[in-house]
Amino acid sequence: MASADQADQQVGTGATAKVVLYWLEKSRAQRILWLLEELRVDYELKTYKRVNRAAPPELKSIHPLGKSPLVSIQAEEAAEPLVLAESGLIIEYLADHFGPSLVPKRWQEGKENRVQGETEEWLRLALQKWVDPCDKLSVPEQADFVALPVVRDKSPFFIRPIANAIKVNVESMYLNPNLDTNFAFLESQLKSAPDGGGYLCGSKLTGADILMSFPLGAAKGRSGFTQEKFPALWEYVSRLEERDGFKKAVQKIIDVEGSYDPSL
After folding, report:
1. Which residues contact 55 (CB under 8 A, 6 or more apart)?
2. For residue 223, is pLDDT > 70?
């Protein structure tokens, strides 16, 4: 019997397709790995290491963007695999074909195909897919947050005090207020979620939660994201990390790579 915290299983259309995940260390590919484990999809995992903090050039042979996550899907009747890039598209496609339970009902009863006829749950999912406010924690804000200490530490010793002052000023004037806005928004989304809440779109796990998992996990305990300031968001991330599928995804990387580092 499936554990109580696994996604409700509905039969999708992709059960017999061959799925390959191209996983890059310290990247958002980890949330796609979690999704595959959550849906109990059979897949092949190919892992890659960063080169000078960037994705390795061989990923460009798989997709012209040359970054991760990338997923290839080949149906039995297809001559060539479909290669997908970008987390939002990958999650939407996998949910549609392998886990319809992760997609909220779109229309309210009696309001099908009408303006403002959508359910709140569906609109919340659409917001996360298209705006993905937490992606702003990693691109470009978190990238800047990570890069600033590197610039400081690589500077000549007599320049480091100036570089450090610039880092502190940029964080206090721009990065931290912007991050706080995003954290506060997600905190309010959790507190106002329909059907008793628990997740961003309501009482059940959806693709929105998969999207949020990696950047929030990477930000946890830093960037102003503390349990004291954002208690509901902190508890939410901790609960996501306790799901069986999430823990299996982490263990898969430990088994293959020897360790797992969620930081950026």
Report:
1. 24, 27, 48, 66, 67, 68
2. no
Structure tokens at 243: 């799901």
The dihedral sign for the CA sequence 51, 54, 57, 61 = positive
**Taking residues 141-161, what's their average pLDDT?**
53
Q: In 192-243, which ranges are continuous DSSP H helix?
A: 207-219, 231-241
Q: Which strands, in side-by-side order, build the sheet including 82-85?
A: 44-48, 18-24, 70-74, 82-85
- Residue 204 Cα to chain centre, angstroms: 17
**Does the model's pTM come out above 0.90?**
no
- Round to whole Å and give the CA distance between 68 and 90: 11
* Ramachandran quadrant class, 112 (left: phi over 0; alpha: psi -120 to 50; beta: rest): beta
What are the structure tokens assigned to 158, written together?
A: 């007599």
Q: Match 């659409």 to its residue by tokens.
A: 126
